[in-house]
Amino acid sequence: MNQNHHTYDVVIIGAGVAGCATAIALKNEVPHLKIAIIERTPRMSTEDSTLYRIGETLPPQASQQLQRLGIWKSFLNCNFITAYGTSAAWGSSELYHNEYMYSPYGYGWHLDRIVFDQFMIKEAQIREVDFHFETSIISSEKKSKHWFLQTNAKKHQIAITSNFVIDATGKKAAFSSLQNSNKIREDQMVGIYRFYNTKDLHNDTTGIGNGTCVETDHNGWWYSATLPNETVVIGYMTDADIANQLQLRQKKAFNNLLYNTKYTNNRVKDAIYLSQPKVVAAHTQYLSSATGNSWLAVGDAASSYDPISSLGIFKSLAMSQFAAYATLDDLKGDQSGLQKYQQIVARDYLGYQKKRQEYYAQEDRYTSSLFWKRRQSNYNYYN
Ligand SMILES: Cc1cc2nc3c(=O)[nH]c(=O)nc-3n(C[C@H](O)[C@H](O)[C@H](O)COP(=O)(O)OP(=O)(O)OC[C@H]3O[C@@H](n4cnc5c(N)ncnc54)[C@H](O)[C@@H]3O)c2cc1C
User: Fold this and answer.
1) SS3 assignment, position 116
2) 224 CB within 6 A, ligand 1
3) Least reliable range by pLDDT among 9-23, 232-246, 368-382
4) Is any atom of ligand 1 closer than 6 Å to the C-beta of 310?
């Protein structure tokens, strides 16, 4: 194996929205900064129609973050589907509509997540950020002022020296965990989801139109949204133990549960499924510390929110600017930026926690359900 050596000002681990947005924010502030993004997966192709990624509703206020990052015009050129609001059967069997038209920021978007994530990578590359795909960090050591990172790439090993490291590895928080920061989980939520082709369905009998819909049941809640290319995603959010008990990885069990819904099933009842049920982690989590000695965590690595909030991408975009300021302060030898950043992450998390509790409290029909009991304010998950 060949071994190359690279030196950077900042290394970011993870090429998701948080990693790319932070790289863009840093480059906007200091264009000559040498930045690399290390990503363990291969670069995805937007041409591959068999690839799907979940997590796609972008709220209207994200427009401000996209403008601040200087990527607003190219975002609009992606032509994502406009989202006018969300429909919900939550706390009642009747469907009500939350229209974005009451938002001062206008409408939101249904993203094709693969196209969006590739768009973010391209914007970082335009600003001369280096990318190392199919590469993982295998060891890290801080000596004096520098991080020494050993990586395992597909074809060769790379040794990297960097002044600052940013953990943008999503819920894994891989680098922060190596720095002895603990991941604190608030629940064990998972999402089980499938994609459907609705091309030949002409009559919308649901009243949901192109929008996002959430609908509760005894063991959790359903989520559905329209995606580009006449595709609909259906997801069921519940706790991992309940999903196992109900065997929801099996399509028969998934379909039986879906069949009993009042609204969600109608969106896909005559549609062709494009994928088998897949499970993703969807738990709420935060780090005991999102900063340390010349490192910080951003995006889901720092804190990840319940999908009901539809705030994950927005938060990653918004926090990227604060992460960039804290990084630049640290590079100048001023650690107070990291302290401020930690406070901002913690404050945002507390605000989210309060809203989440209020939202779940609105559903009081399933008093005997473990899933809903676990989301009451006085429930201790680990009892
Ligand atoms: C079921 C579900 C539905 C959701 N719905 C929405 C929604 O509608 N709207 C919304 O805004 N948000 C939603 N979210 C949340 C949103 O998807 C996340 O908040 C967002 O993707 C976080 O971005 P990130 O860049 O922090 O992490 P990620 O997108 O997870 O990116 C992390 C990157 O790091 C890479 N990586 C991981 N480990 C390593 C390693 N060791 N070395 C190198 N690379 C590594 C990964 O391959 C990945 O590319 C949803 C989440 C779930 C689970």
Assistant:
1) helix
2) no
3) 368-382
4) yes
Rounded to the nearest angstrom, the distance between the alpha carbon of 305 and the centre of ligand 1 is 11
d(CA 192, CA 220): 11
Give the number of other Cβ atoms within 10 Å of residue 93's Cβ: 10
- Looking at domain 57-110+188-282, its CATH class is alpha beta
Position 277, amino acid: P
Q: In whole angstroms, how far apart are CA 51 and each of 48, 115, 194?
A: 6, 11, 12
Residue 14 tokens, joined: 């993870």
pLDDT of residue 1 exceeding 60: no
Q: SS3 letters for 15-31?
A: CCHHHHHHHHHHHHHCC
Q: In 138-188, which residue ranges form alpha helices assigned H by DSSP?
A: 174-178
Q: Among 285, 296, 294, 293, which residue's Cα sits nearest to residue 319?
A: 296
Tell me if domain 3-46+112-186+286-358 and domain 57-110+188-282 are identical in fold.
no
Q: For residues 224 and 220, what is the distance between their CA atoms, to the nearest angstrom?
A: 14
Token duo for residue 109: 């978007």
Q: Is 174 in the pocket of ligand 1 (CB under 6 A)?
A: yes
Tell me, in angstroms, the distance from the centre of ligand 1 to residue 304's CA: 9
Q: Is the CB of 59 under 6 A from ligand 1?
A: no
Ligand 1 atom closest to 62 (CA): 11
Q: Kindly report the length of the chain.
A: 383
- The CATH class for the domain spanning 3-46+112-186+286-358 reads alpha beta
- Radius of gyration of the chain measured on its C-alpha atoms: 21
Every domain of the chain and the residues it spans = 3-46+112-186+286-358, 57-110+188-282
Residue 202's pLDDT band, with cuts at 50, 70 and 90, is low
CB 313 within 8 A of CB 17: yes
In angstroms, rounded to a whole number, what is the distance separating the alpha carbons of residues 82 and 245?
37
Measure 15 CA to ligand 1 centroid, in angstroms.
9
pLDDT digits (tens, 9 = 90+) for 213-231: 999 999 999 999 888 778 8
